[in-house]
Amino acid sequence: MTDEDAVSPGPVPDPAAMRKHYRAEGLSEADLAATPVEQFTRWFRQAATEAQLFEPNAMIVSTADAEGRPSSRTVLLKQFDEQGFVFYTNYDSRKALDLAENPYVSLLFPWHPVARQVIVRGVARRTGRDETAAYFRTRPHGSQLGAWASAQSSVIAARADLDASYAELAARYPEGEQVPVPPHWGGFRVAPESVEFWQGRENRLHDRLQYVAEADGSWRVERLSP
Questions:
Q1: Which of 129, 137, 172, 204 does the annotation list as catalytic?
Q2: Which end of the chain has fewer CB atoms at under 10 Å, N or C?
Q3: Do residues 60 and 73 make contact, with C-beta atoms less than 8 angstroms apart?
Q4: Is 204 considered catalytic here?
């Protein structure tokens, strides 16, 4: 028997045959909170504490550049309130450069184990430096160093270069010594223009209720066909 035979992975599963039959309770207009952030708070609490999902604050952030070419990546939500949803990144990263050209963004929370999704669409603006610094101070020491060590999204020759950069920083700022906030690193707050709450139902007849921002600051709720 050859080494190749010993590690044969077997047939590739057919994605068209993969399906789950959702039987969760539905979502009605009468169940909704007054604002999308209040409703998000309810679902986020359930995802984090009742369902105990792994990283319920993980969200897919989708941006597009000035030519409309999209890109997506998973980022961790770090704060949310009535003003919006906040995440942090390198301001020289692809996502940040996209947002500098086109501030419209989509956030997707894919809570698959509970057959729920939340989709936020809105406009991203940088957080203030004081707010950024306050959050940076809460990060583990290693993560603070990592923000300096990585020129996010740029091409590097080898992993060893990244490790060497981190080692140099670790020597300069040992554990217990304050790491300065990188000027090229900070937050984005996404002010929502619409927030959709998606609840999986059987027969693919899902419930989709969407809050849409009105000019007077109120929210209109509309039901979308699945």
A1: 204
A2: N
A3: yes
A4: yes
